[in-house]
Amino acid sequence: MHSRWVRAALLTGAAAGLGLLGLLSIFSIGLGLLLAGTLVTASALRTVRSSGRSRVAFASVCAGLTVMVGVLGAGLYATDLPVACPSANAQGGGNSMFHGSYSFTCHNGRMNISK
């Protein structure tokens, strides 16, 4: 009985991850990811419908969704800014999803980022 709830949580997390990544990468491989997310969502819905307790299944689905979106959000946030100098005495900049525009300078392997 508990394995259905775990399965529902994992399937929902996978569907949320595929859907979110599919939307973010819609112009490259996003359509394939959205299709895979649709198939996993159908499987998650089947699992939830086959479980007898709707409240527990709903809580399991919400937990899987929350954890996956949190993990993806943390990963995107952590990789949003440059983390290493491309070369000695380099300068550059760009726009990031979470931090807005930024610029960086590198002096002898040490990076300074200003927002």
Please characterize this protein's 3D structure:
With 115 residues, the protein is of the alpha+beta class. It has two domains: 2-78, no CATH class; 82-115, no CATH class. 60% of the residues lie in helices and 17% in strands. It has a three-stranded antiparallel beta sheet, with no helix packed on it. A hairpin with a 3-residue loop joins strand 1 and strand 2. Helix 1 runs parallel beside helix 3 (54-78). The protein is elongated. The model has no long low-confidence stretch (mean pLDDT 83).
- Mean pLDDT across the residues is 83
Helix count, DSSP H or I runs of 4 or more residues: 3
Parts with pLDDT < 50 across at least 5 consecutive residues: none
- Tell me the number of structural domains: 2
Major sheet: 3 strands, antiparallel
Q: Biggest sheet, strands in spatial order?
A: 1-2-3
Share of residues in helices = 55-70%
Which descriptor suits the 3D outline?
Answer: elongated
Structural class: alpha+beta
Share in β-strands: 15-25%
Distance between the termini: 51 Å
Count of DSSP strands: 3
Element order: H for helix, E for strand: HHHEEE
What radius of gyration results from the CA coordinates?
20 Å
